[in-house]
What we know:
single chain; mainly alpha; three-stranded parallel sheet; two-stranded parallel sheet; 19 helices; 70% helix
Amino acid sequence: MDAVFSFFKGIVDLGAAVMLPIVLIIIGLFFRMKLGQAIKSGLMVGIGFQGLCLVVNLLTTSIQPVIKYYQTMGSGFTTTDLGFAAVGAASWSVPFAPIVLPLIVIVNLILLKLKWTKVMNVDIWNYIHFIIPGAMAYALTDSIAVGVIVTLASSVLALFIGQIVAKPWQEFFGLEGTTCTCLCFVAWAYPICYLLNKIIDVIPGLNKVDVDIPGLNKIDVNMDKIESKLGFFGDPAVIGVVVGVLLGIITKQDIGTTLSIGMGVSAVLILIPRMVTVMMEGLTALGNAASAYMKSKMGDDAEIYIGMDIALGLGDPCCITSTVIAIPCVILMAFIIPNMTYFPIGLLTIVCYVTPMCVMASKGNLFRSIVTTILCLFLVTFLTNFFAPEATLMMKTTGVHISGMVTDGFFGQNPICILIGFIHRIIG
């Protein structure tokens, strides 16, 4: 069993840009792709993902002066925001990790064979979405069995919800043959933002003034419409510069820094779709092979969706625009939410991954996307702070030496972590 664990952990430790090509090449060969085709598909996905990581880092670097500006506004935060990377790494240390890693894959294959799901989750990098709540359950109950059950249940939930969101995911982002299996986003951000959009639909207009002001449900700020109506000024590159420059002005940056922020945001808006296109070149070939294989085994009506990272959805201009606007809002939440004990530095690194589901639920309406993203992140920030004691206990249980209280966004946006946390608070 240790050998199995070492194999899986060794692959994960390589990083997603290296791990994804390896996994996809193996899957491609399983689906009867020629060796050369399988290798090319895997490499294109890896190259595209590497490009995505570089562009996301560019976004973080570009707006760093904005983050520093807001960070200096207050003090007194006693809880450390570790970030998802540290928490994810710690979760691999639980004693049942060697067991659940192959079991997640086996359960997925069994459910595919039984036709209970159409999703094949190849996103091994994001198995931490399942292992972290399992590790949390283990820490709170001191039961390996409970930890295993929670981990496997989380992985199955991701498959079922991934299948539900597959159609809107493919239609909105144009990612044929894929779906998203990142549990935090498909099972938390999307349902919340879907509900918020339904609420916006029924809010009446401000009709008590003489001028007939349209209701909130009539506000349609769509990026495509902006581009078509504004022409040159509606181009994503120009929008990026404008948004970035405005952020620089609001945070009182000098001219050089302001222009750098503008160029950084503009570059991100242009480069991310290019990287997604590269990834899709590899995924399309793999998806076609998988579809042909499943039809040969299960009939012509058989479908299969390749479960992938939320990063594939970052290419929409509305996502980047919403991200840039939401980041300073999250920082301000640290000073608004009562009894806040942590400054959301780690949380800021995942804002860009929350927005795709918010934008998808809002069908690309920029106004709704911004509103739902901010409200969703408000809830995430609050819960991340609320469950800091549980997060601290989990980290200590995994053997990580920490001082004081710690937390991470996983405990505020993973629905299983939230459920376990509330159960623990209720029953003690």
